[in-house]
Amino acid sequence: MTAPRTPKIPYGGDYNPEQWPEPTWDDDHRLFTQAGIDTLTIGVFSWSLTQPAPDTYDFTVLDRIVGRAAAEGRRICLATGTAALPPWLAKSHPEVNRTDFEGRRHRYGQRHNFCPSSPAYRGHATAMAARLAERYADHPALLAWHINNEYGGACYCDLCAEAFREWLRDRYGTLDALNDAWWTTFWSHRYTDWAGIEPPNALTEHWRGPDHTAFQGITLDYFRFTTDALLGCFLAEKEAIRRHDAATPVTTNFMGMFRPLDYHRWAPHLDFASWDSYPPLDAPPTWPALAHDLMRGLKDGAPFWLMEQTPSTTACRDVNPLRRPGELRLATFQAIAHGADAALYFQMRASRGACEKYHGAVIGHAGRADTRVFREVADLGRELVLLGDATLGARTPARTALLFDWDSWWALEISDGPSRLVRYQDVLHTYYRAARAAGADVDVVPVTADLTPYDVVLAPVLHMIKGDLAERLEAVAARGGTVLTTFLSGRVDEHDRAFPTDVPGPLAPLMGVRVDEWDARPPEFVQPVPELTAKARLVFEIVLPRGAEPVATYGADFYAGTPAVTRNRFGGSGGEGWYVATALDQPGVDEVVRRVLARHDLLGPYAEHLGLETATRVTPDGTRLLFLLNHAPEPARLTARTPATDLLTGKRVEEGEPLTLDPLGTAVLRLQ
C-alpha cells in the first residue's frame, strides 16, 4: 500500500477545533477556503476527549469535526490520539507512567509520557484505534490514518527491564552468545542468569548522562530495544485499524534525523513515510534537504508527506526566529523538490493556552485574514492549485548515494574514544552539503540498500560494518564506481566490538590503507592540509598507504607529510576507494567531493552558482522536472541549458536564454 491518491498536493495541516468554541469553526473554515486548505489532520491529542473514563467513549465532538470538514469538501488525516495519556489512565494504572533515565517513576503530565511495555497502555490504545476505525473507516472524508504522534522517549521501569530481557533472549538465544557480544569478561560482567541484566541507565552502566556508558554493547542494544518497543505499539494500533479498514493508508509522523529511533526499522511497516520539519536555528538549507532525502529513502525512493512545518515561527525553544517573507514558500517547494507529495502545517489555528500558544499558525488568536503569514499561506495555496498533480508520484533519479546508519550514529556517539566532539549528523551533513552544492541529486539510504544504481557512494563515519556491507561496497568500485569513507569508519562490528585487524577493518582492502594511530584534539586545534587549501580538526588518523596514493597530506606535527586524503584504484574497471582521515572543513570536503563527482560526470549544470539548489524529479510518465531554488538574498541569473516550461508561471524558456530567479525564488521546470 502507498500514500493516498489525490488530485493535487494535499495542503492544510494539524487542526484542533476542540480547543475553541464551536462558533469559531465557522470562521476557521471560511479562512481555510480562502487559503486553499483542503486537508486537515485532526484528533492528534484527543484521547481524553473521546474516552473521558475507562468504560466511556464519546465521539460527539469528533463526529461534528469530521462532519464539518466533509461538508466543506475537505479530506482528513485522522489520528488515533494515543500520543498523550488521559489523566484517568495514569491514575488507574500508575505503571503506564514512564520511569526516566535516573530511575524516577514519573507522575501524570506532559506528553509522550507512556511506557511502551505497559499492557494497560497498549490495551487501551489499541482499543481506541479499533473504535475509531470501526466508526470512521468508510467515511468519505477519510484520506489516511495517523497513528500516535512523533514517537520518542525511553522508559527504564521494571516492565521494560523484563521486556528487554525477552528481547535479548530472542536476539541472542543463549547467555554465552550475549556474553560474547557484550564482551562481558571485561569488569567481571559475565551474566549467568537473564534476570541479572538491568537496563543501562544512570543507576547501572552510565555516568555523566546517556552517552557515557561502561558497556557500549548493552547501551546499543537498549537503543535497538526501545526502537522495537515503540514500533510494537505502532503495529498494535495498525493491526487494530486493519481489522476494520483494509484500504486506507496508515502512517505516523517522524522527525527527520531523530537519533533515539532507527526509522529504517520502522519503514517497512508504514504505508507511506511522513515527517515534521523543524530545522535547528540558523541551519543552512541543506540541513532540511538532508532530512527530506532521508525520509524519501525510507520507502526506497517513494514520495513522502511533509506532515508538519511552521508557517511562521516555532515554540518551546529559547529563541524562536520568524520566517522572513518568502522563506515559507521556498521551504515548501524545497520539500516538494526532494519528494514531498503533501505540504501540511502545524498548526491551523493557534492555541490560546499551554506551551504552544506562541507557536506559529495559519490563523492567529485574533482570527484575521490580513496578516502577512496568512497572505503567504493563501498565495502558496493558489500556486499548489496551479501545480495540480504535476509532481505527484515523481521520483529522484540519483546516481549518488549517502549511507545513513542509526547503529553507526549510536555507536560513534556513545564511544569513549577517540573524540566525543565528532557528531555523526554534522559529518554526514558536511558531505551531503558538498554533493548538493556540486549539483548532484543524492539518495540517502540505509546500509542494507541495493547499491547497484549508484556510481558514487558516500559513506562518512561509517563506524559500524555489518553483514556483507564491505563486499557490496567493493562491488560498487569493482564495476567502476567510487566509494568514499572517512576517519572513524570500519571500527566495530554489529555488537560494537573492535575488529581484531587493522583499521579500517573490513574496509581496508577497498581503501588500500592501514591506520595504527590517531590523534584527537580540542576544536580550537587546527591542522593545515595544504594541497586542498583546507583545515582539519578533531581527529587526525595517521595513514600508512597499502596500495593507495596520497591526494592531500597533513601540514604540521610529527605526522606532517603523511596522507590526510588517499585514493585507491580497485578492480579492473577503474573504480576507486577514497579515504579521508580527518575532519576537513567545508571547503576541503567540497574539493574532495567535487573531484569524485567529476569522475562520473555528476557535477550539475549550475554548480558554480552559490546559494542555488537544484533537484530533479521524474514523474511516472517519464517527464523530467528540474527544481531551481534560490536561497540567496539576491537574484540568481542563469542560462537555460535546455528548453523548458516553468510550471509555476507558464513561461517557456529556450536553450541559451536568460533565466532569472528572484531572491528566495523558485522555478519548477518541465524539461522538453
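the 2nd protein, sequnce then structure:
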Amino acid sequence: MPRRASLLPRLRSVWRLRLVLVTLGALLCGALAWQLVLAELRQGLEQGLLVSHRALQTEIDRFRALPRVAGEDARIRAALATPDDAAAIDAANRYLQKIASQTGSGQLYLLSEAGLTLASSNWAAPGSFVGHDYSFRPYFTEARDTGTGAVYAVGVTTGEPGYFIATRIDDPDRDVQGVVVVKIDLRPLERAWAETGQHIAVTDRDEVVFLTSVDGWRYRPLTALPAPTLARLADSRLYARTDLPGATPLLPKGSELSLNGKGRATTLRGTPFENGWRLLAATPVWPARAAGLATAALALLAGLLGLGLADMRRHRRRLIALRLRQTEVMERKVRQRTAELAREIEARRQVEADLRAMQATLVQSEKMAALGRMSAAIVHEVSQPLAAMEATLTAAEFGLSRAPEQTAARLHSARGLIRRMQRMTKHLKNFSRREVAPLSPVEVTDVARSALALAQPRADAAGVALRFAPADSAPRVEAGHARLEQVLVNLLHNAIEAVVPGEGEVTLSIQCTAQEVTLRVGDNGPGIAPDVLPRIAEPFFSTKVGGEGLGLGLAICFEVVQQFGGRLDIRSAPGAGTEVAVILPLLARDDTQEAAE
C-alpha cells in the first residue's frame, strides 16, 4: 500500500504531462489546418481575380475604340460643323442609334465643344440625352484636354450607372471639336459574380466601391473620405442619387469586410486596374476557422483515445496515410490546373497572333479595294462623255460642207463635253479621296434639262421616249451642278437600259414641298426582283449580263447625294417598273435672294 500510494502522484504527473502534450499537439494541428485552408482560399481568390480581371478588361475593350470609329463618320462631323441643321442632327441621331443597336453597347452620344449633347442613340426615348449639358463630367473634360477620357458614374439623366468612354473628335479644316461618348453597362458582370458566389468589388481611384457582387458594398468607400474628395465627387456628380457622404467605410479597422451581415471576411487579394481602379476579392474565413477547430478537436480526441488505447500506433498510421492521400490528391489537382492554365495561355497567344495577321491582311485588302474603286469609277464616268463626243464629232464631220453653223454648234458641244470630262475627273478624284467639294446654289430645272439632253441620244438609239415634268416654281438646292447632273444622267441611263426598246418610256419629274425637292426618274420596265433590290446599291454589283457595266453607278449616286445632305430612295415591284427619287433639302427663297444680292 505505501508503495502504491507513492506511485499515484507520479502517475498523475505523467498523465498531466501527456495531457498537456496532447493538447499542445491538437492546437498545433488546428493552426496547421487553419493555414492550409486559408492558403486554399487565397489560391481560389487569385484564380477568381484573374478571371474577373480578364472579364472586365474584355468587356471594356469591346467598346474602347467605338467612340473614335463613330466619330470618323461624315454624319457626325456634319452635326458638329452645323449643329443648327436639323437634317444633319437627325442623320447623326439615326447613325448613332444604328451603331448602338448593332454593336450591343449601351448609349452612344455626341457632345459639342461646350459639353452640350447634339445627338444621341436614345434620341427618340423619353430619357433622351439630347440637349443636356455634361460639361461637368470628368470624362468630357479629360477627352477635351487630352483626347480621351473614361470614368464610371451614375447617370444624371437616367439614374442608371455605367462606364463612360469618351474620345475627342477634331476637324482642323473647320476648327470644330466635339466628343463622342459611349456608355457601357457593366452590371451583368455583377450578376455573373453573384451567381457564382464570388465576393468581388471594383474601386475607383478614390477607393469608392462602384461595381460589386455584394449589395451592401456598393457606393461605399473603403476608408473615410476627406472633405475635399467628397466635394470633388459632389461637383462631378459621379455618384448622383447615392448617399456617399453618409456611407459607412467598409474597412474602418483593418482588412475585414462584412458580408451581408452574416459573418466576417478577409480581403485577401487585390490587383490594380486601369484608370486607378483596383479589383478586390474577399471570402468568408469561417471555413478555415471551422477546419482549424475541427482539426484541433480531432487531434485532441485522437490523443486522448491514444492515451487510453493500446492501438494508438495503428490509429496514427491511418491518420498519416489519410493526410498523405489528401496531399497527393491536392498536388495532382494543382498539377492538372497548372497544365490547363499553360494550355490556355498558349491558346490565347496563338489567337492574338492570328488576330494581328488578320488585321494586317484587312488593311492591305482595304487599300487594294480603294484603288480598284477609284480606277473603275474613272473608267465608268469618262466612258459616257467620250461616246457622246465621238458622236458629236462624227456628225460635225458629215455636216462640215453642208451646214457650217450646225457644225460649229456641234464642235462647241464637243468642247463642252471635254470640259465636262475634266469636271468629272476632278469630282472623281475628290470622291476617291473622300474630299468634300464646295457646294453652291443650283437651279434644279436647269440641271434636269441638261441631263435630259445628255441622255437623249441614247434614248433615241434605243427607241425610248423621254418625258419631263418640271415643277411649277424654280427650286434651288445647295449642291454641285456637274455632280448633280452626273447623278441624273446615271439614273436616266439605267432607266433607258431597263425598259423594252421601242416600247419603253422614261419620265423625269420635279416635285417641291416646303422643305425638300424630289427628282423622280421612273420607267415602265419589268422592275427589280425583291431578292436583288437590297443589293442594288452595293459597289461592283450589277445585273447586266455579258460583263457590261461595273456596278458602280448607283454606288456613286448614293455617295454624291449624301454629300449634298440628301438621300436616294429606290422603289420597284416586278412588272410595275422602277422609280428612283433623289430627295434634297430645298434652298429657302430668302437665302437665295441674299446670295444673289
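The two ends are 140 Å apart (CA to CA). Confidence is low (pLDDT under 50) at residues 366-371, 430-435, 591-597.
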